[in-house]
Design goal:
The complex is a heterodimer of chains A (about 160) and B (about 290).
Chain A: E1 5-11, E2 14-20, H1 26-33, E3 52-55, E4 58-61, E5 74-76, H2 89-96, H3 106-119, H4 125-131, H5 143-159
Parallel strand pairs in A: 1-5
Antiparallel strand pairs in A: 1-2, 3-4, 3-5
Helix pairs in contact in A: 2-5
Chain B: E1 5-8, H1 12-21, E2 26-29, H2 35-40, E3 48-51, H3 56-59, E4 61-64, E5 68-72, H4 77-81, H5 84-89, H6 91-97, H7 103-108, H8 111-114, H9 124-130, E6 134-139, E7 142-147, E8 152-154, E9 157-158, E10 165-171, E11 178-185, E12 196-204, E13 211-219, E14 226-227, H10 229-235, H11 242-255, H12 266-290
Parallel strand pairs in B: 1-3, 2-3
Antiparallel strand pairs in B: 4-5, 5-10, 6-7, 6-10, 8-9, 11-12, 12-13, 13-14
The chains are: A alpha+beta (about 160), B alpha+beta (about 290).
């Protein structure tokens, strides 16, 4: 029996306590222990961004974070982006612009875009493209994704 | 992945103790962006991971206008590239460090970790070499400091002895009329590994017409990052003109010993060495003149 370590963290505003092996990634624990399957395993080596989460305000690949490292931390996953009142503007704009086809990369893109708008509320197109360089999409060619993010930024600006 | 245990160390002494008592079975974990991938692919082994991110000395970025810049080995690229003192005094370092990975990697990866290359040549090392940076290494016998260019001894190998680890990187205060730049060639716009990388720094005379001293370093053209001392020696005392810059670039090109791989042929890399060295020098001179 491998050693298990107890971890406490706040995930999407909710207190979680779980046991994990030292070797387990945050992604693995999110998906297989906590049932939060929104973050996807694409490459499992930090290239594709499908597993993106926000860890204490920082955008990270959850496949490159060990679950034991998040003890005492605050994590936002794709499941924490929408509210009971409705979808986040980014999610609405992804639908409006048809910024997805197969949808596998979409949770990662939405989380990465959320982190972007938290840091830079009104990004230029080049800032959006630079920021999303760590997220791979094999369907859309990125153009609709970039347009959706720019539109979401503009609509957020108007509501502020 | 063989990892059996994880410790978040609280201080430097604890790390030295754990490294010594585990005799080669433990590894230091900073951002993990490289290490976790290698462990998962069984390219490296570790039974114990020692997380050093929560040790203040390893996570801090301190600038003092007498001593210079002290980068904790675990400080993230993002923290370094957003530090006002670093941005103000070391734009040539920021050039290199902000190129490491995309946003997700920037938030986790450390410059300390970037000094532990395996197959991939890191962008930060040539930039650190041209800034005359040093590695502060700590072990059971205390600390020692060596120049960055002596840290890597072969692909995947460095000077660290059993029980030792990298505590911080020390970058001296920049002199008056100093300028530095790092650039690389990649086929994409971002998120790629350098085909060739080149760093250059210059210190100019008061009139800003002549080079007093210069340093040039290249990445991805030899088994370890290459400090081309002779190119800097050539430039020392020379007037700033195209002929001298081209000659320094030619010397850097001659020193390069690239191989052919999926990123480029040796011939192409040789060609890039001259072009990138010239551009790095021109930008370094422009910065020194504007300083």
């Amino acid at each position: 029996m491998n050693k298990k370590i107890r971890v406490q963290a706040t995930i999407n505003g909710e207190e979680f306590e779980f046991l994990c092996e030292p070797r387990q990634s945050l992604l693995e624990v999110l998906r297989e222990t906590l049932g939060l399957t929104g973050a996807k395993e694409g490459c499992n080596n930090g290239n594709c961004g499908a597993c993106n989460v926000i860890l204490d305000g920082a955008l990270v690949n959850s496949c490159l974070v060990l679950a034991v490292e998040i003890d005492g931390c605050n994590v936002t996953t794709i499941e924490g982006i929408a509210t009971p009142q409705g979808l986040h503007p980014l999610q609405q704009k992804f639908i409006a612009h048809a910024a997805l086809q197969c949808g596998f990369c979409t949770p990662g893109f939405i989380v990465a875009s959320k982190a972007l708008l938290d840091q830079i509320p009104n990004p230029s197109e080049s800032e959006v493209r630079q920021w999303l360089a760590g997220n791979l999409c094999r369907c859309t060619g990125y153009d609709r994704i970039v347009r959706a993010v720019m539109d979401a930024a503009q609509s957020q600006e108007k509501t502020l | 992945m063989q990892v059996l245990d994880y410790v978040s160390a609280g201080n430097v002494k604890e790390v030295v103790g754990l490294l010594t008592s585990n005799n080669g079975r433990a590894r230091i974990l900073c951002g993990g962006t490289d290490l976790l991938v290698q462990l998962r692919e069984n390219r490296r082994r570790a039974e114990l991971l020692i997380d050093v991110k929560n040790i203040p000395e390893l996570n801090s970025i301190n600038y003092d206008n007498q001593i210079g810049l002290l980068l904790g080995a675990a400080a993230s690229c993002h923290a370094i590239c957003h530090n006002p003192s670093v941005l103000e005094n070391y734009p040539g370092l920021v050039d290199a460090i902000h190129l490491i990975g995309g946003v997700q990697i920037q938030y986790r990866a450390s410059v300390g970790g970037n000094l532990f290359p395996t197959i991939i040549q890191p962008d930060s090392i040539p930039a650190l070499i041209v800034h005359e940076a040093g590695c502060i290494i700590v072990g059971s016998n205390g600390t020692r400091e060596i120049p960055v260019e002596q840290f890597c001894i072969a692909p995947g190998k460095n000077v660290l002895q059993n029980g030792e680890f990298l505590l911080a990187i020390k970058v001296p205060v920049v002199k008056e009329n100093f300028g530095a730049h790092y650039l690389r060639f990649i086929p994409r716009n971002e998120m790629d590994i350098a085909v060739v990388g080149a760093g250059a720094s210059v210190t100019l005379d008061k009139a800003k017409q002549r080079i007093l001293s210069a340093r040039i370093a290249l990445g991805a053209v030899a088994p370890t990052p290459l400090f081309v001392e002779e190119a800097g020696v050539f430039l020392a005392g020379k007037e700033i003109n195209e002929k001298n810059i081209r000659e320094a670039a030619r010397i850097a090109q001659a020193a390069a010993r690239p191989i052919s791989d999926l990123r480029g042929t040796d011939e192409y890399r040789k060609h890039l060495c001259a072009v990138l060295t010239r551009r790095a020098l021109e930008k370094a001179i422009e910065r020194a003149r504007a300083s």
